[in-house]
Amino acid sequence: MWPQIPVDIAGYSYKWNILGYDIARNAAGEIVIGGGLGYFLSYEIGSFLAQCINFPLQRNITFKSHGNILYQAIWYLIAWVLISLFCNGINGLWLPIAQAYFSPAVYNLLVTFITSGVSMVIYFFAYKIIPAVRLNAPRSIQPTYPFTKTVLTHSYVC
């Protein structure tokens, strides 16, 4: 676990980590959620494998991109690493306190919201950097303007 900086917030002392998780214990001292390097690696490996599935789907289906796949994959990897570091850093600050005062259902829901928010912001900028094919409307359904000879060839009723 790294960097293990001692933190004291609201009378609760713990070590802040970006890489690695502390072991969560209940009031009786029993382990509720395992921590350490093994828990951290299992989470990050699972997250990485999910991104290995998500990247081609986003690239090929959602954005229909035909750009340089190596360039896009590198930027996607950079975004994933940033999300992992930011989320681990943020959650490392408040999660040990939340584990002491709230049920796992509550603080895990908050972890989900924080991870989603950070992912949304970072991937927004990553998808601005990763070039996608512009979705232009075909010429035959472009809007017409007064005094032009172009006529719409399709009509749509909503």
Mind sketching the topology for me?
Blueprint: E1 2-9, E2 12-19, E3 24-25, E4 31-33, H1 36-62, H2 69-101, H3 104-129
Antiparallel strand pairs: 1-2, 3-4
Helix pairs in contact: 1-2, 2-3
> Regions with pLDDT < 50 over 5+ consecutive residues?
none
The dominant shape is elongated
Number of helices: 3
Number of domains: 1
Mean pLDDT: 82
Provide the descriptors you would attach to this structure in a database record.
13% strand; single chain; elongated; two-stranded antiparallel ribbon; 54% helix; 3 helices
What does this structure look like?
It is elongated and about 55 Å long. It contains 3 helices and 4 strands; from the N terminus they run E-E-E-E-H-H-H. Helix content is 54%, strand content 13%. The strands form 2 sheets. The chain has a two-stranded antiparallel ribbon. A two-stranded antiparallel ribbon has the order 3-4. The mean pLDDT is 82. It starts with a strand and ends in a 29-residue tail after the last helix. By secondary structure, the chain is of the alpha+beta class.
Concise account of the structure shown:
The protein is an alpha+beta fold and 158 residues long. The chain is built from 3 helices and 4 strands.
